[in-house]
From TrEMBL:
GO terms for molecular function: G protein-coupled peptide receptor activity; luteinizing hormone receptor activity. The chain crosses the membrane at residues 291-312, 324-345, 369-389, 410-433, 453-478, 499-521, 533-553. One of its GO terms (biological process) is male gonad development. It is found in: Cell membrane. GO terms for cellular component: plasma membrane. This is Lutropin-choriogonadotropic hormone receptor. Belongs to the G-protein coupled receptor 1 family. FSH/LSH/TSH subfamily. Pfam families: 7tm_1 (PF00001). Receptor for lutropin-choriogonadotropic hormone. The activity of this receptor is mediated by G proteins which activate adenylate cyclase.
Amino acid sequence: LILNTKNLLHIEDGAFRNLPRLKYLSICNTGIREFPDLTQIFSSEAHFILELCDNLRMTTIPQNAFQGMNNESLTLKLYKNGFEDIHSHAFNGTKLNQLILKDNRNLRRIHNDALRGATGPDVLDISSTALESLPSYGLEAIQVLNATSSYSLKRLPTLDKFSSLLEAVLTYPSHCCAFRNLRTEKQNSLLSIFDNFSKQCESTMRKPTREIFYRDDSYNTSLWAAEKNMYPLATDEESFPYSYSAIFDDSEMTGFDFEYDFCQPKILTCTPEPDAFNPCEDILGYSFLRVLIWFINILAIAGNFTVLLVLITSHYKLTVPRFLMCNLSFADFCMGLYLLLIASVDAQTSGQYYNHAIDWQTGSGCSTAGFFTVFASELSVYTLTVITIERWHTITYAMQLDRKLRLRHAVPIMLGGWVFSILIAVLPLLGVSSYMKVSICLPMDIETGLSQAYILLILVLNVVAFIVICACYIKIYIAVQNPELVAANKDTKVAKRMAILIFTDFTCMAPISFFAISAAFKVPLITVTNSKILLVLFYPVNSCANPFLYAIFTKAFQRDFFLFMSKLGCCKSRAELYRMNYFSAYTSNCKNGSSAPGPGKASQALLLLSALEKPYKTRRPTKKSHLECQ
């Protein structure tokens, strides 16, 4: 034992020479800077143990560091040192039973060929290290892998490298999904191959009269170990897939009285198990969602981008409805970007998400996606509410021009909405809830009271916004329904338009809010897997429908669209038709002196209907232009 000698800075080569009866060597808590020469020990003991610990100045393990130390079973306990790198062929010439590298917190790299030339190890412990990857060679013999608190180890080698693995204790639950899939595949393979032998498995067999093999808790002989490695994945309920009578001839069985239960082989276990928030599945889970999300995100991006482009490039005056529509389109465009990001990552990681889950959920990609969706959702709801209130205000005070909502009023209102939406989206990045909880990057973390209050605040505000929208449209409908104001066919048309708007809002908000509120109170009524259906089919409904309901389906937008296309050399005849119609209507109004509706009830009704049918208005003729027309 060499312990607690901080002043020991160097051990000369050959200091440990020809020690055939040495069983145990410990060098701990010293000031040694270079790895000592252990290659001339030549121990002949069957189970040699080397312990190197708390040597904080020792930074590397060189090539052939243990060659010649022992030719039998070797246990290396190399923990709590200053190791940063393990070189190629570091363990060459050894028969490793256990390789313990835990608590080497600076260990970031094990060379891919570090285990080349070595037999084993059976047990590998890399817990509490900074390793980012495991070597690609030499993992086939590992039966027990311990990698707890190895937060930098976000990816594992291909599963075929762990052909003998029986137990894995890992850091991230998603990594256990890989072994669960491996276990299922191998079980199915074994069942298909040995199905004809399974019925022959018996609970009792003849016991051998002389000891051929034995099994206890501490050691397994080669025969038992071979059987375990051959069938490590059968469950407790499954039978061992053969009996010796099906493999050996009767002459080979003579003299043996087997009485051993081979129907319960060792199973592959992995911890920690995946939880309800991160089940063993791809980001979107269902295959049909993987197709639908592309259709929905392309529709949302194309529709809202078109509306934004036409509104921004239009030569008409920027009115309050146009300004609000620009904000709504931008919010819904961001929602489309979120869906595109989720769909792209799902396509890239399909079938192997367990190996990308940590990088994705803890990286900037998921944080960006989460910010986009919360910001877009809140700004969209806020803008929809403002648009609805603006419509109600326009209709209610149609004849009071001094109370008309103008752009100088709308800008600070929307500025407040932007500040609120950005603040709500930033809070999970600052520790209030988290975007890292689930693969779809929504703030579902409700572990703390503050996070729970945050989720409830968002949901309550969305419900209140929906109630305000419904109330405003009901008031609008009551005003328009007055038989003194509007004809029955226009009354029906307005009712249908309002019903569509309210239905799309309800479809988007109701399912999400209902299940989210129950989950916020820690009484979830739906799994994360099923919630992804809501994410794709209901959550983006408004983002897809809004550009069509509030812009594209209106005549004013269609005119602006064709005028814009004519600038690009397309649809010139259609654009010219819109110009002629607009000029004819304008000239007619000038001649009749009716450029604006009169104060009567019928004129007010037409204005009410116009406010509903055209989300943004064109520039009215000025007084000067009216005189010029005359």
